């Protein structure tokens, strides 16, 4: 007799997902679900799993939006370790299981805004980055956090092409990294992270353009100086280090005033983009006194 429990692959709109959560809550002895961070989550309707896993920028697997879903299956993600070093008290190579024990796994439903002016709403699960940094002990001289993606061209065909200087690198100011919104995501819809979305662990910074949310992380370094960031190094005129969502600062080749929500259909009208992607109450104070047209 076939099971009546919904499978992850059956998840489509948010209503179906919520129904699944109710079923799982009723079977708590058999399932473990991450706690939902209600105060940090949007109530907007989440995109479907199909949309989230089939429309991606993950250039390590190719330039087309469908390339990550097509090619990421060959990526080996077990075993996996993250090197945490630099200005920390307890540097070392941490197994993924060790990282996941550094804080509670929570579900965060975040808006996601790409610099290309499209957007989604995504139900992540993961660990707040500040919990991880506190566990390894941040030294007083640290001011920035640098991140680095896996370099494995034999499994990541995009890395065999020369359009970026691999491995992909990104960085945050320490106060940005310690903000409660900043998440090290390990999954979607309560399940492990799909490979095309950055398995097994990736950064999510919901008030910044998506390219800041580096995928498949293998190294986190605490530094005194601003670290290199791949797109900023490649074209600093178009990609600032801060990359805060800002409808008042256009990309040199297109406006950022509006966005197209993925999944709304061919005739879906564009919607206004909101400063800091709608997270201004939580993060605007980080930039008090800064000129965000200069520090874009």
Automatic annotation (TrEMBL):
Keywords in UniProt for this one?
Metal-binding, Molybdenum, Oxidoreductase, Signal
**Record text on cofactor binding:** Binds 1 Mo-molybdopterin (Mo-MPT) cofactor per subunit.
Write out the residues that bind Mo-molybdopterin.
56, 59-60, 114, 149, 197, 202, 213-215
- Which molecular function GO terms apply here? metal ion binding; molybdopterin cofactor binding; oxidoreductase activity, acting on a sulfur group of donors, quinone or similar compound as acceptor
Q: What is its EC number?
A: 1.8.5.-
Q: Which cofactor is recorded for it?
A: Mo-molybdopterin
Task: Give a short account of its post-translational modification.
Answer: Predicted to be exported by the Tat system. The position of the signal peptide cleavage has not been experimentally proven.
**Signal peptide coordinates:** 1-37
Q: Respond yes or no to whether keyword ATP-binding is given for this record.
A: no
Q: Cross-referenced Pfam families, in alphabetical order?
A: Oxidored_molyb
* NCBIfam families hit by this protein: PRK05363.1
Q: What is this protein called?
A: Protein-methionine-sulfoxide reductase catalytic subunit MsrP
Organism encoding this protein: Falsirhodobacter algicola
| Taxonomic classification | Bacteria, Pseudomonadati, Pseudomonadota, Alphaproteobacteria, Rhodobacterales
């Amino acid at each position: 007799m076939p099971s009546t429990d919904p499978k992850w692959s059956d998840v489509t709109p948010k209503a179906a997902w919520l129904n699944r959560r109710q079923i799982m809550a009723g079977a708590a002895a058999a399932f473990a679900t991450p706690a939902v961070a209600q105060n940090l989550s949007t109530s907007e309707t989440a995109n479907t799993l199909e949309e989230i896993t089939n429309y991606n920028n993950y250039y390590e697997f190719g330039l087309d939006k469908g390339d990550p879903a097509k090619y990421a299956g060959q990526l080996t993600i077990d075993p996996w370790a993250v090197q945490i070093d630099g200005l920390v008290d307890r540097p070392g190579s941490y197994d993924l299981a060790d990282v996941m024990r550094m804080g509670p796994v929570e579900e965060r439903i975040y808006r996601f805004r790409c610099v290309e002016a499209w957007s989604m709403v995504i139900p992540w699960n993961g660990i707040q980055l500040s919990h991880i940094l506190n566990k390894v002990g941040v030294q007083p001289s640290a001011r920035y956090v640098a991140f680095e993606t896996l370099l494995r061209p034999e499994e990541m065909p995009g890395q065999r092409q020369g359009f970026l200087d691999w491995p992909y690198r990104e960085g945050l100011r320490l106060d940005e990294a310690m903000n409660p919104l900043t998440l090290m995501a390990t999954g979607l819809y309560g399940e492990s992270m799909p490979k095309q979305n950055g398995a097994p662990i990736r950064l999510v910074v919901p008030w910044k353009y998506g390219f800041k949310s580096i995928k498949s992380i293998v190294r986190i370094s605490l530094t005194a100086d601003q670290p290199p960031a791949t797109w900023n190094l490649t074209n600093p005129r178009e990609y600032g280090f801060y990359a805060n969502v800002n409808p008042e600062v256009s990309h040199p080749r297109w406006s950022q005033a509006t966005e197209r929500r993925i999944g709304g259909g061919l005739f879906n009208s564009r919607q206004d983009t909101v400063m800091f992607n709608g997270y201004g109450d939580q993060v605007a104070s980080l930039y008090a006194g800064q000129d965000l047209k200069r520090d874009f």
